[in-house]
Amino acid sequence: MSVMYAVSVIILLVLSPFVAKCADEEESPVRVYDQEKFDAELPKNPHFIKFYAPWCGHCKALAPTWDILGKKYNIDLKQEVATIAKVDCTVNTELCSSQGVTGYPTLKFFKPEQDHDKAERYRGQRDIESLTKFVQDQLDQPEAKEDEAAAKVEETEPVDGMYVLQDSTFEKHIETGSHFIKFYAPWCGHCKNLAPAWADLAKSFADNGRVTIAKVDCTEQHDTCSKQGVRGYPTLMWFSGGRMIEKYSGSRNLESLDDYVVQKLADGDAKEEGTEEKVPHMKKTEIKSEGSLLIGTTDNFEDIIAEGTTFVKFFAPWCGHCKNLAPTWKKLADAYSANPYVKVAEVDCTEQQPVCQKHEVNGYPTLLLFINGEKKEEHNGGRSLEILQGFVKDHGLHDEL
Fold it and tell me: Alpha helices of 220-351 — where are they, by DSSP H?
């Protein structure tokens, strides 16, 4: 017995450090915030916050690194320097919606002196070195330099007729007049081939006064390219009066591009003279469906959401999460097939870019609830049939006969 007892003691002594280590690992140094803590703590000091969903694979992969970052700033350094926190979006749906969270994880840096909607979104690598550098850059960046840089961006002038647009200048640039814009990536071979012709096109119309030729680097200006539904490079779009009118699909030589611009300007002249003006909404557009599921397009979307409650899935066919949701979404449509007040629809954003752009769809799938034509709520919670039905019941109208 004494030999067995001695062996048991030795085993416990050997294993005890590992047992203690496991117990310690269960206590994350990252602060857990809900709406109340979010409102109370953010005015006190800078915060780097992870908005996540427990079921999200990328969130699980980031969790150990986020804990290391939390230990560095929340424990090893003074907490007043910066606080590392996290928000579970399946629980705090309204908070995440107010922060524009459409994909997981979303990482945002908040400064106490700034409005919450001006938080800096992190889009870099998710290793500890990159995350730490980002935090330090945010902490070390004087507000005067930020203001100076912002002013410099706003004052960007064309070079040889070419406008280089950024997230901060894009919307203001397109709100009036006509614009032919190239969305590209520097590493893209087709973009490199197009570059000389695009530069010559800009020079040709530099003094036109009615159209600008511009370009957007999508590796740097993520928000703009996402909002415009850019899925490949180069993408060429014609904008007029603040909205995207048409995606160019013709040849990419200078002559073809030049002819296109001339034709679009001529079309604009004809419409101003009333020669091609059509009477809008003479009749409702055709609405197609797959069983009980309505298929939304740019032409029929307003008619679909005009009356009652409409729950809409904005998706891309290549999106894995969209594919997983598809069978449940059809079941949801079937569940409301006999209810005249509730409709379930879907919109393919790779085909119907204008409507997705209008409703600021930045990730897939995006689930939006409309009531009598107005967008009311975004669903950021679980995607089981029961949860989706519960969302309609909690936020919609006339969900039961």
Answer: 222-227, 254-273, 301-305, 320-335
Q: Is the pLDDT of residue 251 over 50?
A: yes
Q: Is 319 one of the annotated active-site residues of the chain?
A: yes
The strand order across the sheet containing 293-296 reads: 288-290, 293-296, 342-348, 309-315, 366-371, 374-379
Known catalytic residue: 188? yes
Active-site annotation holder among 191, 218, 349, 356: 191
pLDDT at residue 332 is higher than 90: yes
**Cis preceding-peptide flag for 29 (omega within 30 of 0):** no
Distance CA 215, CA 198 (A): 9
3-state secondary structure of 293: strand
* pLDDT of 366 higher than 90: yes
Residue 265 near residue 211 (C-beta atoms within 8 A):
yes
CB 310 within 8 A of CB 345: yes
User: Which is the catalytic residue, given 59, 89, 96, 322?
Assistant: 322
Q: Confirm whether 56 is a catalytic residue.
A: no
pTM of the full structure: 0.36
* DSSP conformation class of 73: I
> Hey, what are 291's tokens?
């069983």
Question: Helices 254-273 and 189-204 sit at what angle, rounded to 10 degrees?
Answer: 50
Beta-strand (E) ranges in 309-392? 309-315, 342-348, 366-371, 374-379
